[in-house]
Amino acid sequence: MSAAGSGSGAPSQRGGERSRAASPPMDAPRDESEENPDPFAENPFVMPDDDELETARERIEARKALDKARAQRSSVRDKTTFTSAMGGTMAATLRAAGGKEPVVGRVAGAGSLVSDPNEPPPPRKEKEHLHDFIAKKREIFLVQMALDTKRAEIRKLEERALQREEALTKSEKMLEDDALRFDGFLKDNDMKVQEAIRNGELAAKAKHEKLQEIKKLNANVSIASSELGKTEDQLNDCATYQRFLDALTPPEFFAEQAAIRAARREARRAARREVRDAYANAIQNAADLEADLPRLEAALATASRLGRKAEDRARAELEAASEAAKTAREAIPERSPPPTPECDDSDEEIPMYYRDARALPALYNEMEEQNLFLIQNMQETEEALEEIQNRARETRERMEAETDALEAQAAALRAAIAAEEDKAAEIARRGDPGKGSLAGAKPSAKKKKSDSEGKEKKPAGAIAAGSNIPLEKLTEKVAEVYQRCGFPFDPSMSTIQMLTNIESKLESILAVADSMPKDVVEHAEKAQEKVRRSAARLEKIAEDEQAAIDKAAKSLARATAPVKKKVGKPQMTRSLPPSRKKKEVVVNMDKEEEELKAFLALDF
């Protein structure tokens, strides 16, 4: 359209000539567009219907395709310019409007221009100004452009409306499908709800039945538990009564019943033994008969060569042996006898010893009389024991009083002896100076005497002070020393009395030793010391030998002992818990308190 507008400056007559020259001849076939002109060319501002618009669009596309094909088939000389083609189009338009074809000439044959003699000459047109022509062309262009724009917009709107319509159709279909599916879902849901309700009702009913059954079972269990408790109480009472009756039953009855049970056990064992022996004999007999069959078969084979009589006799023997073996095999029982069980005691209970109802009351009366006699004896024994305890208490008090008196006397005597010894020493010192050695020896002897007295008297205090020697052993040792000193043994004497007698004996011996020559005393002391040392040496040698023997035995035991291999990971050391330290309380006691404690610790 714009090309037509821009090239409109040439005269109209020249354009008409070009259009006539470009127009096809009369005898050429006319296309569909010329036969069916566009009905909207007269009034382009009328809005066509959808069907008409679609038909017009198809017709325009077909005309364009036909023109393109015609242009491709035409030669170069037959082709015209775009301006000439546009002029021909305008001529066709004017021809359609006026009913005349303003064509000056036609192409005839090879393309020569000829004039139609029947066609009247075209009317003369007045010359129009270029400005008006441009204005008209401009208006035509604007109208055509508006039409094209409106048509494009209409086409876009139609396409969009078509898309919207298709989308609406799809949406309606999807909604219908969704509605159908939702209806199906609702139906399925209703069915499932109804089924769930029915299942819930059935489950609730089954649960209720189970609960009722559980309640019944619990009630039955409670009843059974109460009955079981009552039965257990009765069983315990019966067991108590049975133990009581067993305690009252003489042992001879149990021995007799044990003998009877042993006899029954031996009888059962003998019966089982006979059954096993019979079974073994039957098996052995059948085995012997079957073992004899090969010999008879061999004899039959041998007899068949000797003659008919021998063969018949051998066959009869074989048949008899086979029948006997079959009979012996059938006589064997199918099941072997059971072995002897480890414990074949029967479950029979021992019968009661007391079968008469009057036997137990008589026994109870007899036991009651015995119990009364025993109670009386016990009371008499308690009275005698109480009397003995009273006498022992009185004797202990009397002996304690006598012991206190003797200790006081011994203390007084020791004090007097010490005073006399001091006086004698003082007199000897003031006397003859030549007897100084003797005087010095006497005090030493007296000192030894006092030391020996202290040694003899010290064990009592030493025991009280914490010695490990028991009092019984010390008492035995004092009694042994008492007898070795030449005193007769008297069980009624206490340890203090024996020590007092020993002390008196020592004082008399020391007095005799003081009156003896000094060299004799020293020689005797050396001899006793030598004896003591040899005894100590022998004892030490014996101890060493015993220690060597023990050491050798331990070494031999270690050498022969199996090697202990440590298995696994060694145990890790752990910190020991804090130990509580015992605080020792030292009690300082004087000599009198120690002697008193040692005396109280003695067992009279």
Give the helices and strands, then pairings.
Blueprint: H1 2-6, H2 12-22, H3 32-35, H4 50-73, H5 82-98, E1 106-108, E2 112-114, H6 130-248, H7 251-303, H8 308-331, H9 359-430, H10 436-465, H11 471-484, H12 495-515, H13 518-560, H14 591-601
Antiparallel strand pairs: 1-2
Helix pairs in contact: 2-5, 7-8, 9-10, 10-12, 10-14, 11-12
Defining traits:
604 residues, mainly alpha, 2 strands
Structure in words:
The chain is an all-alpha fold. The protein contains 14 helices and 2 strands; from the N terminus they run αααααββααααααααα. A two-stranded antiparallel sheet has the order 1-2. β1 and β2 form a beta hairpin. The radius of gyration is 78 Å and the shape is elongated. Pfam families: DUF4200 (PF13863). Keywords: Coiled coil.
Q: Summarize this, please?
A:
This protein is mostly helical and 604 residues long.
By helix and strand content, what is the structural category? Answer: mainly alpha
Beta strand count? 2
Mean of all residue-level pLDDT scores:
75
Flag low-confidence runs: 1-36, 99-115, 432-467
| Discrete helix count | 14
Distance separating the two termini: 162 Å
Biased composition (Basic and acidic residues): 54-80, 450-459
InterPro entries: CFAP_domain-containing (IPR051147), DUF4200 (IPR025252)
Region (Disordered): 1-82, 314-348, 427-464, 560-585
Keywords: Coiled coil
